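ok trying this again, last paste got cut off
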Amino acid sequence: MKRVSEAIAAIAPSATLAVDAKAKALKAAGESVVGFGAGEPDFATPAHIVEAAVEACQDPKYHRYSAASGLPEMKQAIVDKTRRDSGFEVSPSNVLVTNGGKHAVYNTMLALIDPGDEVLLPAPYWTTYPEPIALAGGTTVTLPTDAESGFRVTVDQLEAATTDRTKAIVFVSPSNPTGAVYPLEEIRAIGQWAVERGIWVITDEIYEHLVYGTNEHHSIATVVPDLAEQCVVLNGVAKTYAMTGWRVGWMIAPHDVITGATNLQSHATSNVANISQVASIAALTGGLDDVAMMRGAFDRRRRTIHRMLNEIDGVICPEPQGAFYAFPSFEDLIGRTVAGRSIGSTLELADVVLDEARVAFVPGEAFGAPGYGRFSFALSDDDLVEGISRVAGLLG
């Protein structure tokens, strides 16, 4: 008799967390390791957010269960924030507060996808997306992009991949892992195509405030208003407010989808921790000054890592436009020998770099993009320079 169900046995572990865990284990053993693996800001949560949580801890009303869909004041804060930041008008009944962004992804896929449905997923993609699609019985249809295309999918690609089983597309801008940001006209074209095709758009906007230079974030739900009844917006406080550990995300969707997802969550986890919700209300209503400070630091670091990676022979790194990741190509290094070891893939290269240079990055295979690697620049300037210098010394 099988001890683990086939559905659960088929789930791959998170490659990003695995790399981070290995790096932390080496650090715990006394090694000097520079980790570019984890996708989280290196800043502390802003003080006014922490203070709101401390105060909430003293209030007995937050010591009890609350509504599975979220505190009313939290849902209203999300409504107001969404109007402020993207111009998308929604009501509290369109909102479900979730236990982090990943939970929002799982709720969405389980609420929308039936066995046999197909979901279009441009690659490179965040490692989590395919797993809940499979768990719901759906099929991920991967659409490859590369540095030459700016890591952006085209309407022609979407149309060519569409069948009578296509249910949804996952649309992400700014992108994890590439840092790509779609321009307005391309967003409009994809949204209009989805409306004409009757295909759901699942848009992950978790990095909306982390865009650089002349790049701008545009919510596809606002750009194409007719999409509202077939669109799910995913978001959360983790990246924008340095709150990864607080575990608060949300989904915005038509009422029937939110009702279904809320029913699911009521049996899976019930409400998100009240203290975390109160902290998130403070984040969403407290202005964006702290966000601007963090974005300025990320902007400085992205320019540094972009320059340093491109100075390494055989490495080509497009300029990150958003999020906090660089996604260089190591394709010219495949087949070479590094530190006496033959490199047959970026998986092998990542192992060599960690073993020999004590630098951790996530190989592109984890994102459906062999030949590339993801480097988070959400770490101190000194560690960034030290880490890329080590990689340059090893590969040079």
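PB: full thing came through this time. The first strand starts at residue 34 and ends at 35.
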